[in-house]
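Problem 3 from the worked examples.
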Amino acid sequence: MRAAQWTIALETKGEEPAPAVQGRRTSLSGVCYLTMGLLVLLLGLVFASMYVYRYFFITQLPRESVFHCGVLYEDSLYSPFKGQLELHEDVKIYIEENYEQINVPVPQFGGSDPADIIHDFQRGLTAYHDITLDKCYVIELNTTIVMPPRNLWELLVNVKKGTYLPQTYIIQEEMIATEHVSDMEQLGSFIYRLCSGKETYRLKRRNARRRISRRETGNCHRIRHFENTFVVETVICKKS
């Protein structure tokens, strides 16, 4: 009688672990599925982040800051019978440093000097290096004419598919050379690199009531350039 009772007790103890083992297997399976689900979710987030970064952030950053540009324009005063004129220039835009560097080669039509130009928006200054004279001229930055780096970059990117900017017009600004600049470092590092070792003068804008003709500018030099949707003719004259 006792032996039978012991045997039954042993059988009962041997049957108890089965539900626990099954529960462990179920828990492990749940953990595996949960882990796989988390991995899939993380991978989805990674690919989504890459997509957003590629198509929304990278496209807003300048991939290229060097442009070779050309513009067609009409000059009714100096070339009324020549029709459209061409102006070419190389533009380098530095958005983070907040300045623009422009190189104007020798123009095809003549009457204008080749030049290197820097628009420094940090210092609020513009420097013209007249390559023909090998002299520098510095003046306060005219933000009504010169587009900021980001805006100019967006303009050039939008027209990059074509060779030329849309046909446009020309305006004129006249300036007078005043005092000689001796302390070049006060002009900032960008203009310093451009004008170091060259005669440098301050400029003062003259309020132009009308566009001056060539006969009136015997002691003047012209630089034609564009940093906007129109061409600017900068006339730099000696102080009389």
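Problem 4, a separate protein:
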Amino acid sequence: MARSLGRLFNGFQRLGSLSPMKAHLSQPSVTSVAVRSTLVRSMVLALPSPFSSKPRDFSLPNSSWGSEMKRLYEHYNSQCEVETEGGEKQEGPWRRLPSYNRLIKYATGGVYLSKIIQSRARLFTRNIKETGAAFEYVLFVNSEEKKCVCIFQAGHLLEGPPGHVHGGAIATMIDTVTGTHATILSGPVMTANLNINYRSPIPLGSTVLLESTLDKKEGRKTFITCKVTSTDGSKVHTETTALFVSISIGHLLLGG
């Protein structure tokens, strides 16, 4: 498969459709994008079934979710759409964020390009095929209140201290939630500082809430605070302050 992709990719380069990659990404012409999209789409459709063009949304409920995970999901999801007095439906205060296993999918045409350029790359938190084994989570964002909440269920592969979640796995989730929140608030960002105070361990298999709140914005800097608690709020597991710095997307996509 890798050799086949390599030959196909070289074919694209000979056709000249991918050689000026940076120019196309920064200022694409309608003609070049249309031609390239048609070629890439044709190539993807010819690939085997593992390269299905319909991505899986990992933020949707699955059979591994416990009752508390499902309850909280329904609680926030029910506030994504509300009914007016006249019976009409409109957007609510919260919005569920879809979650895929490749970041490049978010770019225009990325659903196809990711299968060629980053065919083996996967998000760290979404790279385990067994449902419920590691990071099970869903994020909801409230733009008006500038808040983001994450419902997180920790799987058995995240063990650190016996029977409890590894501190690095907790930090990964905090970075994921605060980084996503900062990106929504400020566009593309990178983590500059993550200061975590661990208060109490998280049992494996349990469900916790991560609550991210905007502290302030100063130029390119976005300051976020985040708290990890039990679902009823009675126990604080961690308290975090985070700093994110706005960047140009070219630094990531084009190696700038």
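Solution to problem 4. The beta strands are 81-83, 89-91, 95-97, 135-142, 147-154, 189-198, 207-218, 221-230, 236-246. The longest strand covers residues 207-218.
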